[in-house]
Amino acid sequence: FTSWKRHGQNSNRPGPRLMAAPALGVIADDFTGATDIAGLLARAGVQVSLRLGVPEHPPEDTAAFEVIALKCRTAPVTDAVAECRAALAWLRDAGAERFFWKYCSTFDSTPAGNIGPVAEALMDDLGAGQTIYCPAFPENGRAIFMGNLFVGQQLLSESPMKDHPLTPMRDSNLQRLLAPQTTRPVGLADRLTVAHGEAALQRRLAELRDAGTAHVVVDAVADGDLQIIANACSGMPLLTGGSAVAMPLPAIYRRDGVLAVDAPPPRRPALASGAVILSGSCSAMTNAQVAAYRSNAPSFRLDPVTLAESGVASAIDWLNGQADGTAPLIYATAQLDEVQHAQATLGAERAGQLVEAALAELALAAFGSGVRRFVVAGGETSGAVARSLGLTRLDIGAEIAPGVPWTFAVVDGEDVAVTLKSGNFGTRDFFTIAMARLEG
Questions:
Q1: What integer pLDDT is reported at residue 440 of this predicted model?
Q2: What's the CA gap between 428 and 245, in Å, rounded?
Q3: Per residue in 131-168, pLDDT tens?
Q4: Phi and psi (nearest 5°) for 284?
Q5: Residue 3: pLDDT band by 50, 70, 90 thresholds?
Q6: How far apart (Å, rounded) are the C-alpha atoms in residues 308 and 108?
Q7: Inter-axis angle of helices 348-368 and 336-346, nearest 10
């Protein structure tokens, strides 16, 4: 794509934009995962557009990279497949010819799916005979060796993910996890192959393809491995994995003429003051982040049992009473025993729904009181907050931490900044860093 042209306007983005067929179309299985990959692609210094849900209207003003965020990680398999196929159809209508199915770097899924079933459906629609699976993200401590996924120095099955309330990960071997989810053979391209370079990996993939192996787990333990994998596989119509294996793609696409050299850069609007932090994730890292932030900032804890009894009114009153210029924290983040107690009392599904609904209502109340900066922790929470604010499209801004960018949108004619953080991402002082990075 050697030129960009002015096109029409979008209701969420006043003013003229530049349009060309996207170099890559991404489908993500949750909102924080979508911002993760969008942030890494934006490191290339070009415009990245994040759509929340499959757009209702035909493609008009598209960016160099188009990302569609779905909420299908734990949806029924048939629903997840249908939604992802609809996203693929929209991206193809936008002119994309290369696609990426993005899921969590801890391979969050149930024995039934949804990673494998969605991949097979997308492969069928694209006529792709083979794809790869690489959720490695070395910068965030995710590595794959001999098909086994590590979180830091722990196997996935020994990490805190083994107790995830929705997708407990009790096996670390990606081939074993993937096989029950697919109808076609699963194979491995191991680290020894990747270490020999692009040509060696391509030969291994060809051998597996000739043997009828459609799904290939690819080892990666360092950023250099991701570069080799991206170089070897960039011509595939469909790639799948965590966000990091997509990080080298912009440079490859520029080299190959797929991405215009003069692709438009991202925008950063001026913002009114006021901020709030909303945390629903109960991951180990988010627990540490909440503990660090609340020691020096006003905070309010949401308890699902209390919400069931008396609703969210007291939290809204507390929020409205905070002084201007502060960035208060409202959180349902809790330790495992507290989560289990709430789930035993209310049921796991209702406990989660109560928290999501409360944080969504609080986001809307905060916007009504003038808040224009939102930090949101947790995939389910991010989806609920995004819907409550009516977000349908985000422009990607500066990264706060690897895979966690600030994003910009328009709500009721007002510019807002939103960051949607996956529970496990960021350092202990993430919330403080987020505010400083936005101001900087």
A1: 64
A2: 25
A3: 999 999 998 899 999 999 999 999 999 999 998 888 99
A4: -60, -40
A5: very low
A6: 28
A7: 100
Q: Which residues of 186-211 are buried (b: 16+ CB within 10 A; e: fewer)?
A: bbbbebebbeeebebbbebbeebeee
Q: Select from 206, 254, 250, 261 the least CA-distant residue to 227.
A: 250
Question: pLDDT tens digit string along 208-251?
Answer: 999 999 999 999 999 999 999 999 999 999 999 999 999 999 99
pLDDT at 398: 85
Using 50, 70 and 90 to split pLDDT, how confident is the model at 267?
confident
Q: Are strands 215-218 and 99-102 parallel, antiparallel or unpaired?
A: unpaired
**Pairing of the two strands 148-151 and 154-155:** antiparallel
Whole-angstrom Cα distance, residue 119 to residue 108? 14
Quote the pLDDT of residue 6: 27
Q: How many CA atoms lie within 13 A of 90 on its CB side?
A: 24
Per-residue model confidence (pLDDT) at position 4:
27
CB 48 within 8 A of CB 57: no
Tokens of 72: 């299908």
Residue type, 289: Q
First to last CA, the chain: 33
Percent pLDDT > 70 in the chain is 95
Find the Cα–Cα–Cα–Cα dihedral 385, 290, 375, 271, rounded to 10°: 140
As a three-state string, the secondary structure of the chain is CCCCEEECCECCECCCEEECCCCEEEEECCHHHHHHHHHHHHCCCCCEEEEECCCCCCCCCCCCEEEEECCCCCCCHHHHHHHHHHHHHHHHHCCCCCEEEECCCCCCCECCECHHHHHHHHHHHHCCCCEEEECCEHHHCEEEECCEEEECCEEHHHCHHHHCCCCCCCCCEHHHHHHHHCCCCEEEECHHHHHCCHHHHHHHHHHHHHCCCCEEEECECCHHHHHHHHHHHCCCCEEEECCHHHCCHHHHHHHHCCCCCCCCCCCCCCCCCCEEEEECCCCHHHHHHHHHHHCCCCEEECCHHHHHHHCCHHHHHHHHCCCCCCCCEEECCCCHHHHHHHHHHHCHHHHHHHHHHHHHHHHHHHHHCCCCEEEEECHHHHHHHHHHHCCCEEEEEEEEECCEEEEEEEECCEEEEEEEECCCCCCCCHHHHHHHHHHC
Q: Is the dihedral of CA 233, 237, 242, 247 positive or negative?
A: positive
The Cα angle at residue 230 between residues 225 and 232, in degrees rounded to 5: 95
Distance CA 156, CA 367 (A): 38
Instruction: State mean pLDDT over 41-67.
Output: 93
pTM: 0.80
User: What is the residue type of 77?
Assistant: V
